[in-house]
Design brief:
single chain; about 290 residues; mainly alpha; two-stranded antiparallel sheet; 4 strands; about 50% helix; globular
Length: about 290
């Protein structure tokens, strides 16, 4: 009768705090759902194109009964119950481990070491969830600087496209072509349907079809088929057209530290017209 949403409560614990094996039960899911009754949003009179705080607490829809979440007793405090519950979830060791693993997977490898995750989780717990301190532990770790982990993270489509533009030296002002190609690569901006978000693992993005799309993009991008400095090619000035063309010598110099000797050999032997495409298509550029 209070509009209890078990799915939302489960997502809060499974995806964003404790993790799938975080030690909670179905009873905890129900109790958190009860605690969060009344948490809603209000779009009346709000211009959807303007960012705004749309959160509102609906007191009339809140379950006022006592609850028991993860062994902690909750009495009726309205909106404050939800805040207390989130603080409780954030304080758990399972949350520290879950978040530390997600961060390490993003920056280090798809399978980060248990030692690194534990060290990050300890920093989280000792600082009451200071993510900055957790990142300090990560960035100063042997795992982060280990040669075995360098170049092992397969780029997501977003990372691949953005990195190609960054090393090109072009300062884009026309973004629709890039947004369009991300859609073709199955990673449209804010387009993921479920609340777990886009995957960051190699297994999620490495396939023959995905590589074909990336090779097509590398070919288009190297031939300046993406008008990043203008929206209408017929209206572009000669200078814009010239500046819109990525330069192999510029990109090759920036990427030189990560390019393998085998790739350099292939680039040296390739015709000038193909060098940039081959560079963007190389395994060296596909991985971080």
């Amino acid at each position: 009768q209070f509009g209890m949403n078990e799915n939302y409560a489960r997502e809060v614990m499974e995806l964003h705090t404790l993790g799938v094996n975080g030690g909670y039960t179905q009873k905890d899911v129900i109790e958190l759902a009860r605690i969060l009754t009344g948490w809603s949003y209000d779009t009346r009179g709000v211009n959807p194109s303007v960012a705004a705080d749309l959160f509102m607490f609906r007191k009339d829809l809140h379950d006022t009964g006592d609850k028991n979440l993860l062994g902690v007793h909750f009495i009726n405090h309205g909106e404050q119950e939800g805040i207390q519950a989130l603080d409780l979830l954030a304080s758990k060791q399972a949350t520290a481990l879950n978040l530390s693993k997600k961060i390490a997977q993003y920056f280090v490898s798809d399978q980060p070491s248990a030692t690194l995750i534990k060290a990050m989780a300890n920093a989280y717990m000792s600082t009451q969830g200071d993510i900055g301190r957790v990142l300090e532990v990560l960035f100063s770790s042997e795992d982060f600087w280990s040669k075995k982990n360098i170049g092992q993270k397969f780029k997501t489509p977003y990372q691949y496209v953005v990195s190609s533009v960054r090393v090109s030296g072009i300062q884009p002002i026309n973004y629709p072509p890039l947004i369009s190609v991300l859609g073709q690569m199955s990673m449209p901006i804010y387009g993921y349907a479920t609340p777990d978000g886009y995957k960051i693992s190699q297994s999620a993005w490495l396939s023959s079809a995905a590589l074909t799309t990336r090779l097509d993009y590398a070919s288009w991008f190297s031939r300046a088929k993406f008008p990043l400095l203008y929206s209408d090619p017929s209206m572009a000035t000669p200078l814009q057209k010239q500046s819109n063309t990525p330069r192999f010598d510029y990109m090759n110099k920036i990427l030189d530290p990560i390019i393998s000797s085998n790739t350099k050999k292939i680039l040296n032997q390739a015709p000038a017209s193909q060098k940039l495409m081959l560079l963007l298509s190389s395994p060296d550029f596909m991985y971080d």
